[in-house]
Amino acid sequence: MCLITFAWQVIPGRPLIAVANRDEFLDRPTAAAGWWSDFPQVFAGRDLQGGGTWMGITRDGRFAAITNVRAPDEQRTDVRSRGELVSDFLTGTISSEEYVARLAAQADDYNGFNLLVGDCHQLRWFSNRAADDARNGQPILPGIYGLSNAKLDSPWPKVVRSKAEFASLLCQGASDEAFFEMLTDTRLATDCRLPKTGLSIELERALSAVCIHTPGYGTRASTIVRLDTADNASLNERIILQH
Fold this sequence. Notes:
- The protein is of the alpha+beta class.
- The chain has one domain (about 5-155, about 215-240): Penicillin V Acylase, Chain A, CATH 3.60.60.10.
- It has 5 helices and 12 strands.
- It has helices at about 85-90, 95-105, 155-170, 175-180, 200-205, and strands at about 5-10, 15-25, 30-35, 40-45, 55-60, 65-70, 115-120, 125, 145, 215, 215-225, 235-240.
- Strands 1, 2, 9, 10, 11 and 12 form a 6-stranded antiparallel sheet that branches. It has a 6-stranded antiparallel sheet with strand order 3-4-5-6-7-8, with helices on one face.
- β11 (about 215-225) and β12 form a beta hairpin.
- The longest helix is centred in the C-terminal third of the chain and has 16 residues, at about 155-170.
- The chain is globular, with a radius of gyration of 17 Å.
- The chain starts with a strand and ends with a strand.
- It comes from Actimicrobium antarcticum.
- InterPro entries: TANGO2.
- This is NRDE family protein.
- Pfam families: TANGO2 (PF05742).
């Protein structure tokens, strides 16, 4: 995932509502969201190259999602796929607290990531590039949050814009169609507001949209996830771009 906006413990009876866009290279093989034949309790898309996933739920209400940290100068080729962090949580049974504690000891085995893991009772954000953030690895407090390719709630234009619109739609009790429409926003940020992550200004500009369309890379799927207090979970995916 490259953009996740979510409300945690804001709506009574529905502790989590999340909307997200997955940005990826168009030639990376991917399976659409569905029940996994090898782990029938998991409903998620699947990265057919790395074997993991970017966002998913389980029948008993577990949830996990990941974004990459944009730091081109730090990328390594001798690391494990970050998607396995999501699939390992979804296919396991340990709590988010135990999972994050275990992951902290091996976080350097991966390129930079932001991971959300939890259920209807507790949600945690953990990043291997946010050791100085007191929220890292701790239970998330009630509120509306945005997560892209930097730390939680970093004020990137797409994060600020999507959080504001997401909050407005929540207040309206909007339909899934309205949330999906929100995720199709292709407006680019002005250059003075772009983050500086080590990419060219042209690429920073192209990646500043909520929904990205560039040759060979872009927003491939949009997703809406809901968890309720009865441990029920739903995931609605809409494919945007295919190879």
